[in-house]
Specification:
Elements: H1 56-67, H2 71-88, H3 94-111, H4 114-125, H5 129-149, H6 157-180, H7 201-218, H8 225-244, H9 250-270, H10 277-281
Helix pairs in contact: 1-8, 2-9, 4-8, 5-6, 5-7, 6-7, 7-8, 7-9, 8-9
């Protein structure tokens, strides 16, 4: 009666009364191969289909390696020399300044955005001596304190580097401004107490101050990319704010970026011998 096994519908019965080799199913998904094991996935491989996007820290690490190449200061130096020569002889490249200023004025007039104007003024003010220099000196003190907490040597170095950078900024900018004596975008003649607009002092002050801050604090933490990202944003934001507010020509800002890049590149190479946080205390 019911003691005999019944053959499954659609599957031929076997003479040995054993279960079929493949269990029948009404659900197609159960017949699919198992999910790829986690250890066999290639989600972080940048050149294969289905790759996960790189983390921000990895992107900035790759960018840092590219910026550390010896060709970078050579390119920055050549660009700075070329722009400075064209400014000194009133060369044809100055037409780029006028084009950028005209385009920015048109965009500013068409938007009529008080928010953008306020943001541009705020960013340009970040390149002033206050708050840039206090941030730089404070970063030196914080970095020294962190070195002291972890028992690491060279705890005197960050304050010395911060103070040296603060002194270096006017030594680089003021003589160049006085020598070029370039009028500003408004075209007004220089007053006896004015040094000129080339290169941009606000751009150089912001880039060196916030860049050195990122370098010093980045040596005392495990992940330095947030400091680098913030410094890069401020570097670009201050220059853009100066151009938007018509405080500087584009080439003034470009020269400030090149000059600051040379200083930061040299300083970053010199600070490489200072151990990082994870290697210093063995917690990496």
């Amino acid at each position: 009666m019911d003691s005999e096994p019944h053959p499954t519908v659609g599957v031929p019965a076997r003479d040995d009364n054993q279960a079929p080799a493949t269990a029948p199913t009404q659900d197609r998904s159960t017949a699919r191969p198992a999910q790829t094991p986690r250890g066999a996935r290639n989600g972080d491989h940048p050149s294969r289909p289905g790759a996960l996007p790189p983390a921000p820290g990895r992107l900035l690490a790759v960018s840092a390696r590219l910026l550390a190449a010896p060709a970078v200061p050579l390119l920055l130096g050549l660009l700075l020399a070329a722009v400075s020569w064209l400014v000194a002889v009133n060369g044809p490249l100055l037409g780029l300044d006028r084009a950028v200023r005209h385009g920015t004025a048109q965009l500013r007039g068409s938007l009529h955005s008080g928010v953008l104007d306020g943001l541009a003024h705020l960013l340009s003010d970040l390149g002033s001596t206050v708050p840039a220099i206090p941030v730089l000196l404070g970063a030196g003190v914080i970095a020294a304190w962190r070195l002291w907490r972890t028992g690491r040597p060279h705890r005197w170095l960050p304050p010395a580097v911060a103070a040296g950078a603060a002194v270096l900024i006017p030594l680089l900018v003021v003589p160049a401004k006085a020598w070029f004596a370039r009028p500003g975008p408004l075209g007004e003649p220089l007053q006896p107490h004015e040094w000129g607009w080339y290169p941009s002092g606000h751009t150089t002050t912001a880039a060196i101050s916030f860049g050195v801050t990122a370098l010093l604090l980045g040596r005392t933490v495990r992940r330095s990319w947030p400091f680098t990202a913030v410094a890069a944003l401020l570097w670009a934001g201050v220059g853009a704010g100066l151009i938007w507010c018509d405080y500087h020509w584009f080439l003034d800002v470009l020269a400030g970026w090149c000059l600051s890049g040379l200083v930061l590149w040299c300083l970053a190479r010199w600070l490489r011998w200072l151990p990082r946080h994870e290697r210093a205390d063995g917690s990496g």
